[in-house]
Amino acid sequence: xxxxxxxxxxxxxxxxxxxxxxxxxxxxxxxxxxxxxxxxxxxxxxxxxxxxxxxxxxxxxxxxxxxxxxxxxxxxxxxxxxxxxxxxxxxxxxxxxxxxxxxxxxxxxxxxxxxxxxxxxxxxxxxxxxxxxxxxxxxxxxxxxxxxxxxxxxxxxxxxxxxxxxxxxxxxxxxxxxxxxxxxxxxxxxxxxxxxxxxxxxxxxxxxxxxxxxxxxxxxxxxxxxxxxxxxxxxxxxxxxxxxxxxxxxxxxxxxxxxxxxxxxxxxxxxxxxxxxxxxxxxxxxxxxxxxxxxxxxxxxxxxxxxxxxxxxxxxxxxxxxxxxxxxxxxxxxxxxxxxxxxxxxxxxxxxxxxxxxxxxxxxxxxxxxxxxxxxxxxxxxxxxxxxxxxxxxxxxxxxxxxxxxxxxxxxxxxxxxxxxxxxxxxxxxxx
Length: 432
Ligand code: SF4
Prior knowledge:
Radius of gyration: 25 Å
Order of helices and strands: EEHHHHHHHEEEHEEHHHHEEEEEE
Bound molecules: iron/sulfur cluster
Mean pLDDT: 85
């Protein structure tokens, strides 16, 4: 094993996990280690947590554990993805405008009052700009996002006309209760209390008896209707039907907000293409649903109580996994065949290699130990190339590289394939 250089000495240290390479924003050498302490099962369950655990318990656990050696935030630092950030910005804009409409007692965005309101907010574009800033700010302090923040922000800002249209389409169909909406609302109550009549945005439903909670985008209560509305910035999905049905259950069982146990009379999923009206569960169906979520919750808690929790590798699960660099199941040989379909059409893929020597000023020779979806190339030579100066690999390092560009096509090539690092690539040290 070679002596670590001054620049990389930290990788040999128990408490150091990596650092950004000077002069090379975008390429960071991290140590990829499982958490020192696996997280405990969630104290309260939500639909998204349940679905995440059911999809892959290991993924939930790796993402939820604390990594104090990396940062002060909770969980593994997420990598910003532009498509996800765009959806978050639209959703935040919907939340902002809906809340303002409710407070102003508007019935729709076409009210004269709503027009004045939007002017006071600076217009849709200004609202979107503010939301983009707030979304990007959430990544400040995230060491995995530091080099991407500027690009992410400017990329999102170029999309504002499109994001504004998405928000306007959804808001254009919104019908509220006007002045009646604010008649019985506790004034921005800090304490939870009965909700009688009105429109309530971003309401958290809680059922301590079940240890479940959920956040509803909009709850509209009138004499005739009790409607739960959820904005959806993606495409239709059966999980959304389950989610809004669980909201109906939680609303009916939330003894603080709904002490009379009033049932939801309408469930609405608001997509860009149109609203989907879901028939609310009857009292008998709610009982069945309650039993189902309790059973699934217990199974999920058992799954994440294992140390480590089981991993469910699959093309769908692993392709978008934010913590796959930490997951030995993903990088194991038996998973490679299964993941062949992940290999990116644009030749971006994940590679594990061992550095065997320097090739040039910013390139190294290596031996492939894993090539996502191409197990046949394991053991072959390759060249790792950084497009800028700054990466400081050492002979003997075993690296996991996410989202590297592979050229030429590895099959049948007479020359060793070249693995090139780009701005989205991440380099993790897993052994030395
Ligand atoms: S890489 Fe795949 S198997 Fe591993 S945690 Fe992620 S989703 Fe699960």
